[in-house]
TrEMBL record:
One matching Pfam family: tRNA-synt_2b
Classification via CDD domains: GlyRS-like_core, GlyRS_anticodon
Protein name: Glycine--tRNA ligase
Record-linked PROSITE patterns: AA_TRNA_LIGASE_II
Biological process per Gene Ontology, one example term: glycyl-tRNA aminoacylation
Transmembrane segments: none
Gene behind this protein: glyQS
Length: 515
């Protein structure tokens, strides 16, 4: 656990030092759980968004995109259930005065037990080597069996109190588990209360005539209310999907863990409309498809796992999370939900307008069922960034900090250096920049020794460094260095574009989903 905390601190420090994420309004001591994406961060975030969009929209002929407004008619949120049911269980510690989500306290406690199981497994793997059988170990090791039983009991009781909205039972679960305040260790808790997460505001020229509206807490409802508009204007046939990326806002009880949980965040969602009765098949298909998208980035299959929901939302008949191994443990990265026909039927009821699809093959109208994939862009940013940040010990005994971002996502694809700031070398380097920038985001750097420049670009996550030297003036060649291997080779300037493209091209990366 201490190792994880240390790694997380490094992530926070590196994100600021290398221009990825800043605390919002930092000169005024910041605003809690609100962050700004800096010059490198905005590029990485854009590249993640583009990678998702190409895979989700561009590569599917039956999925289109929209960009719905953040502000919507207030009845939208009544129909969706957010006004009445968009709550989190809140609990305060009387001694530390800290406020927490009750479910997160229990989930974190459960995850600590799981981490102990993982440590036992890792020790056994080292001890037995290739002869190790994890399934057999889990079934026979008494410590693992005891801890897994505890996890299952906690999960069952957590699901019950959530399902029954048993707030007294929620507190009792926290007390029975002996959960203390993460900040102080105190176990002096208040009762559990429900807390609505929506930010409210008003529209109108005067206070007397103002209308209460909300900053959207999710992007999905903008898709549902536009379902029929998109279907008719796009002449879409079932099954088809509508995708959207955009900002959402939640007044989180306790926003923490950097950009993992913020009050202003960005979602990448796709709602897939299907014929009733086929939703479970499509749910399975999209679970598999989305995991393949994640794995295409090469961040290690061992860092992902599915978590099937014990407690289903009021609109769902199946739900699972893709969890990622963040520096603070496995947490939700993406959700896949079979939402049934709840949303469209609710909007039909509250609006008085039909939201149905006419199936020409069956010669009848029906309200489609929906399978949703929803991923937090900020969480995906954190997953990529934290997984990529590494400390390496080199053969000469020194260490280097390297940000091994998937090359397709890196903010800058290459940095170009003149060996020295004279003799015509800067002019050649800048000419290379002018040529490459039409296809790639590239960076020019002439300050400090080349070795320091290499290290700077390693830490910033740039896949290639290109050095112009005096021989370049004679043979039109340069030295290209690869970030991950540190291998260097001499190549023609005319070949640079093709060499870089082979490593960073979106097609090359997304093709891995077909493997």
């Amino acid at each position: 656990m201490a190792k994880q905390e240390d790694q997380f601190k490094k992530v926070l420090s590196h994100a600021k030092e290398y221009g990825y994420v800043f605390q919002s309004s930092e000169i005024y001591d910041g605003l809690s759980a609100v962050y700004d994406y800096a010059q490198n961060g905005v590029e990485l975030k854009k590249n993640i968004r583009d990678y998702w969009w190409k895979a989700m929209v561009q590569m599917h002929d039956n999925i289109v995109g929209i960009d719905a407004a953040i502000l919507m008619h207030p009845t939208t949120w009544k129909a969706s259930g957010h006004v009445d049911a968009f709550n989190d269980p809140l609990i305060d510690n009387k001694d530390s005065k800290k406020r927490y989500r009750a479910d997160v306290l229990v989930e974190d406690f459960r995850e600590k037990i799981n981490q102990k199981i993982q440590k036992d497994i890792e020790k056994a793997q080292k001890r037995f080597g290739d002869a190790f059988n994890e399934e057999e170990f889990r079934a026979t090791n008494q410590n693992v069996i005891r801890r897994q039983k505890q996890i299952d009991e906690i999960s069952a009781e957590l699901a019950r109190v959530q399902e029954e909205n048993d707030l007294a039972g929620f507190k009792q679960l926290i007390v029975d588990l002996g959960i203390g305040c993460p900040a102080s260790g105190s176990k002096n808790w208040t009762e559990v209360k429900q807390f609505n997460l929506m930010f409210g505001t008003q529209i109108g020229a005067s206070a007397e005539n103002a209308t209460q509206v909300y900053l959207r807490p999710e992007t999905a409802q903008g898709i549902f209310v536009n379902f029929l508009n998109v279907q008719k204007t796009g002449r879409m046939k079932i099954p088809f999907g509508i995708a959207q990326t955009g900002k959402a806002f939640r007044n989180e009880i306790v926003a923490r863990q950097f950009i993992f949980r913020m009050r202003e965040f960005e979602q990448m969602e796709m709602q897939f409309f299907v014929k009733p009765g086929t939703q479970k098949e499509w749910y399975t298909t999209w679970k598999e498809t989305r995991l393949k998208w994640h794995l295409s980035l090469g961040m290690g299959s061992e860092n992902y796992r599915f978590h099937d929901h014990d407690k289903l939302a009021h609109y769902a008949d199946a739900a699972a999370d893709i969890e990622f191994n963040f520096p603070f443990g496995f947490k939700e990265l993406e959700g896949i939900h079979s939402r049934t026909d709840f949303d469209l039927k609710a909007h039909e009821e509250f609006s008085g307008k039909k939201l149905q699809y006419f199936d020409h093959e069956e010669n009848k109208s029906y309200v489609p069922y929906v399978v949703e994939t929803s991923i937090g862009l900020d969480r995906m940013f954190l997953a990529v960034f934290s997984n990529s940040l590494q400390e390496e010990e080199l053969e000469n005994g020194t260490t280097r900090t390297v940000l091994k971002l998937p090359a397709v996502l890196a903010p800058f694809k290459a940095a170009v250096f003149p060996l020295v700031k004279k003799d015509g070398l800067p002019e050649v380097a800048k000419k290379i920049i002018e040529d490459l920038k039409w296809d790639f985001n590239v960076f020019y750097d002439e300050k400090d020794a080349v070795g320091k420049r290499y290290r700077r670009q390693d830490a910033a996550g740039t896949p290639f460094c290109i050095t112009v030297d005096h021989d370049s003036l004679e043979d039109n060649s340069v030295t290209i260095r690869h970030r991950d291997t540190m291998d260097q080779k001499r190549v023609k300037i005319s070949d640079l574009r093709d060499i870089i493209k082979a490593e960073v091209d979106v097609k090359t990366w997304l093709k891995k989903m077909e493997a």
